[in-house]
Prior knowledge:
The complex is a heterodimer. Helices cover 23% and strands 36% of the residues of chain A. Chain A has helices spanning 29-38, 109-125, 154-159, 223-232, 241-257, 271-274, and strands spanning 11-17, 20-26, 43-44, 56-62, 75-79, 82-87, 90-95, 100-105, 130-139, 142-147, 166-169, 172-178, 181-185, 201-212, 217-220, 260-265.
Amino acid sequence: MPHLATEVDCFSLVIEIGGIPIRVNTASQEFLRTLQVRYAGFIGSQDGTWDSLPQMEFDVELSDAGFGNPEAGVKVSQTDGIWHMQRGDFHAEWEPKTRHGKIRQSANPYSIDAILRIVHTLALARQGGMLLHAASAIHHGNACVFAGVSGAGKTTISRLAPHDVTLLTDEISYVRKIDSGYVCFGTPFTGELAKLGENVSGPLEAVYLLAQGPENKIEPVPVPDAVRSVLANVLFFAEDPELVRQVFHSVCELVDRVPVSRLTFVPDSRVWEMIR
Amino acid sequence: MSKLYVVRDARSAVRVLDGEAMVMSGRDSTLFSLNKTATIIWQAADGQTSLDEIVGSQVCQEYDVEYASALQDAENMARELAGHGILQISEQPISQARTLAGESR
Lengths: 276, 105
């Protein structure tokens, strides 16, 4: 009698960003290899020999059916304790209570990249942390964040970093609130530099709002402007008033504890002499 | 002129930094920064204390301003913030239970 059910091989890997390990399960060995390359340096151990076991787990089903334009707007909402994430190129859901989720997407790694960003924003929002549209780096043991819209100079200042600076990202910065301070982690989320950040972390000592100008200067920013500017650079996708309020409070607390300055710079390496 | 009562919108989020309130609208997430005088009024806007009492007992105590002028400014500000949905105004006292915005620190 033929087998009525076929056992499907399942391949797994753990992607650890910001100290939060996420296990991804897939039936496609090819997709697994794609992820191993995409997240090189951010792949954790399968057996929990790292500091912590996976805090979330996603089963990925690859399918080309029903997916269209990846540029179609992202929609993130919650019903009955389950987060639903949707874009032109993926559908995903995640239940925080069970820490388990499902993803249906094409084999494009950028789809799961977007899902990971969303999931991390949701996890961080509850903890007082955030993803910022910002470059970040560790300099003299401390982390600095360089926030700004596209064209403000995130990639430029990252390119200009001297050799003793460890680049955490040129595009998406990962900030966690740990105890009474903030820690900035490296991310694999890249911008124009197309170079993964180092998977290290450091205490966040300064936030710079980037602007390019005729001379290098650092100026203090009034608190309301700092809150407004940092908030404008927070990545957050969920249509959830409570979490939006939480993000607002988190930004206010960050601004209260970490100095925020405006960094105007000429695009040459001298700017790094000003950064502590 | 009849009394005016003001109360903070419960859906809005507020944070006071350096004596000035930052308020995020619960309606559309628009951010408002209030100056110190507006912050005093905002913090006292409990729906039970009338605006003229707030101005008389707090604003005029804090700043050397003429009462009638300060009250007129306060009413203008209250109506503007009400237009943005972050404050409610009424000629009657307003129940606190469903309207006060949560404030952190």
